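Bug report (template v2)

What were you trying to do?
Predict the complex of my protein with 1-deoxynojirimycin.

What happened?
Run completed; filing so the output is reviewed.

Input:
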Amino acid sequence: MSFNKDFVWGAATASYQVEGAAFEDGKGLNIWDVFSSEEGHVYEGHTGETGCDQYHRYKEDVQLMKEMGIRAYRFSLSWSRILPEGTGKVNEAGVDYYNRLIDALLEAGIEPYVTLYHWDLPYALHLQGGWMNPASPEWFYEYAALCAQRFSDRVRFFFTLNEPQCILALGYGNGEHAPGLKTGPNDYFRIWYNLLKVHGRGVQALRENQKQPLQVGMASCGGLFSPAGENAADVEAARRATFGLMDDSLFSAAWDVAFWADPLFFGRYPEDVQEKFGKYLPAITEEDRAVITQPLDFFGMNMYNCVPVRADEKGDPVRVKRYDGFPRTANGWPATPEVTYWGPKFLYERYKKPVYVTENGLSCHDWVSVDGKVHDPGREDFLRRYLKELKKGISDGTDVRGYFAWSLLDNFEWSAGYKERFGLIYVDYRTGERIRKDSSRLYQQIIAENGENL
Ligand code: NOJ
């Protein structure tokens, strides 16, 4: 088996990273507007104030996607553009913007995949404690219900949260991301528990307000592992590492896939999490369990790389050192194509849901060459290798429904600002000009051939 004929070949972005128009048409402040404006948080003081200006250039971007044959666009809604204070009064200009974007996509034959929350919490809600506040699941319910009412007549696919792992570990753990807090274990696990409920209330809000049957899930991330050797013991070790704590730190707890997904799919905490952190974990009430375990249609996961492990004498996973000079992307991440084989396989086997690779890609040192084009052979090679592994997984029986390249455009890479370029399309931030990179042509070809020649 190869890629199904309706395999979803997509590309992804997120509101704060591409929209710009941070202070236009009634949008309220969000935590990234504030965080990036403060000295020392983002590389060279970059902000998303103008960014890729997709707010004004969305038609051009839709046209470029159409040219590339992209079948689905995963983008996120800016909560504070729609509800400037987070709850209460609706900003109709913000709703209109997303209506225009959705209509333009549909007109171009591109399916919208909407992420409700990709890290840009309304600042007004942050001032009330943000995700620390036990009322936060209800705030999210209100927002998600509104989105379903306004958009689900045309949008069929929704993600609740993007990478709650990063929200917790980077936003409230090491302070690298907005709101830049460093909490202790009590607050940390309270926020985690709230986020599980936030997700569940989001699912309920979508389904209770849907205008047509929706497909709903999360776009998560986490530490993925691959077997160092081709033997059953190493495969089991890699599986255990994927669904287990690798050390005692709060930070790495957030990257344990089971830490989030077991509560969501099984309604319980993983045993090792209970053992190590039991005294901090809020007990799941029956009422909350019903919220947290709302049925999902798929498992969405952002996948960039994985760590090789081997089994020791007891079968426990042991990290294997990478060889000197191991291939790395511009921001130093290891290039490990096998992640798109093992990641979806392990997820599918444990949670038994169709998988979407909701993000995959890399940062390269891209610039405009003397011929006026942007050549990115590294990204072409990466794309080929990662998609080949994905294809292999599908032919071995893993149910993968879609792949979203991160990213459609170069964009604001959080604390790294515009230093990192992840796009299939180059953006000149001085003018807003877009230039299709070579990799966008390769992706176009792969899509046209439905991956047959990988
Ligand atoms: C995951 C995040 O969802 C996205 O916002 C980010 O830009 C990419 N990874 C690359 O770091």
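What did the reviewer find?
The first strand starts at residue 8 and ends at 12. The chain has one domain: 8-448.
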